[in-house]
Amino acid sequence: MNWRAAFREQAVNCAALGSPFTARLLDLIAARGLPEGRVAARIANWQGDPTSRGASVPLRLTGALHGLVLERRAPGLAALYPPAGAADDALWAAIGAAVVAEEAWIDRRLDHAPQTNEVGRSAFLIAAARWLAARTGLPLELSELGASAGLNLLLDRYALCVGGRWFGPQGAPVRLSPDWRGALPEDVLLHVAGRAGADLAPPDPVTERTRLLSFIWPDQPARLERMRAALEEAARLRLRVERADAIDFLERRLATPVEGRLHMVFHTVAWQYFPKAARARGTALLAAAGRSSSSEAPLALVAMEADGRAPGAGLSMTLWPGGQRHDVGRADFHGRWIDWRPPEPESLPW
Fold first, then answer.
1. Pair 173, 275 in one domain
2. Which of 102, 150, 178, 238 is buried deepest, with most CB atoms within 10 A?
3. pLDDT digits (tens, 9 = 90+) for 48-91
4. CA 45 to CA 138: how far, in whole Å?
5. Could you tell me if 171 and 217 lie in one domain?
6. How many other C-beta atoms are found inside a 10 Å radius of the C-beta of residue 105?
7. pTM (two decimals)
8. 103 and 148 belong to one structural domain
């Protein structure tokens, strides 16, 4: 797919996910191109898949433009960003001026794939963790694959509002209130005894705060505020994610069953980006660890991933002992809505 088609495709996706401004930005760039120079040439000659299924080149560029706004490097562009409104011609002129003035800076930012570490996905993770805790009566050991900055590892620090009820700690820094369908979350005390995550390029929540914020779409202020709050909590707790291959990390985490804890391995919109061989190895490692699990040291794989179906992403849980996989609903990719359908009790291994 050529770069213009990739930008148009991403514009459709952004519109569907509630960001008309980002969709408009991408459509403008696809229709009118970019000023001649290093940035335009790099995008036009990008090697590999430029779409969201590959390198996500359109979101690399919109993230760079938003970064200029957040860092106050492009006041002319910032003046036209939400909540301000602007005609297409004015917005396009400001984009072109920013690309010319900050060519080297934007070019460096194109090196980085989007890492939104979407905190809204914790709504599903909270429901899954509470369901597991209620069924096993055990504290949780968390392991996240493709963790980015690790913000979703703090799921027990966040509160979830469903049906007018709050599930989570009082005074939680992040409060999630998605459109909820299906079963209510379990009303149990969530105890996380340990947590760890891995990513090939984990961004630091302190030193790379602005870059992480830049990948949040500028016309979604609630998401921006949620991300700011989560980053502040991660900085306060000095949360760190291991710089490592996710499957190597998984092998180490699964090496010894954790007695007296339920080990919840999870990934959200990350598995699809792992190489095919890595996915096969990860699946084999989980199956082998599952064979060594027990009711005193159970294992669960919790996943939220694109599955080629609509709407949203598929939700699943695989439970050991036994290794039975359960489809447990669907969710918006940013957690705007959750359809939570946990397994029936008679199908459980515990």
1. yes
2. 150
3. 999 988 999 999 999 999 999 999 999 999 999 999 988 999 99
4. 52
5. yes
6. 16
7. 0.94
8. no
